[in-house]
Give the backbone structure.
Amino acid sequence: MKLQSLNCPNCGSPLRTEGQMQYCDSCGSSFKIDYDESDVEFERLSKANELNKQQFAHEKEMLETQFRLQEEARIKNEKRQKSEARRTQAANKFKALLSLVIFLVVFFGIGILFYKLVMGQSLFDQLRDELQTTTTETTLSPYITITVADVEADTEFMENAQASVMSYVNKERNEKKVTTYDLPVTDWSICSDPEIYECYLFTSENESRLVFLVKMTYQSERDSDDTQEVYDALYLKNIKVGSDGKIASDYSVKKDRGEGAVDWTWDGAVDSDQLYRSAVLGKTEFTNAKVKFIAPAIETEAEETEAEAEDED
């Protein structure tokens, strides 16, 4: 490219360039810019360089946009994974809590059922009562209605009935201890022979029962002077007088103390009056009458030893 003066050759004033022309404002002369091949190549290279800059800027913008989109996608994915992890953790906690609730419900349900089966009259006992009732009525027929006089007159039956009741109590009570959880925690055991203190005849159109009220004395294993009296109601079911005048019974002992007298700590009543109201007066489906009876004598160990010696002689 050739260098040309930027001053007017006529008057020496500065020239003004417009496009490919130059003008002198002083004398009004005008001149055309003369470009050679090197000027054209320089212009081409300048334009190419500008295009390269524009392309580089465009590619840079595209890369920045791609990076930004990738970052947004990565952050969104991390948030989604964290959200899924929280949902999974919450679901696992809910499942664990639900499993615990189901376990507790089943555990306590089994415990309550077991408690009722052990401490009260079980469904098996009820079924057995029904079977025994059917068997007894079939085996011991014909019967006539039983009265208090019949019961009091049959001393052999009364002795056997009382022996059955005492055997039932001793087997049920002596093989287990009672624990009270008031501080201090105390274990209790029977310290004296159970005592039958009242007897009642229950009669209805369909059944006769002989009900015994029994007293037991529990002794604290922590303090021998600390005792607790416990009362219970036991009965023989389906007793009747046969044509031979004898009372027939299967001597199967049941318990029915009612609801109001139950103290589940002792599996009985701690108030004899409340037991009477619940087990006797509360049985409105029966007519009851008190029976006079002679309690069997309780032999001491010395008397038992002497009786055994006499038997050996």
Remarks:
- Residues 117 and 214 are 22 Å apart (CA to CA).
- The chain has two domains: 35-119, 122-299.
- Confidence is low (pLDDT under 50) at residues 135-142.
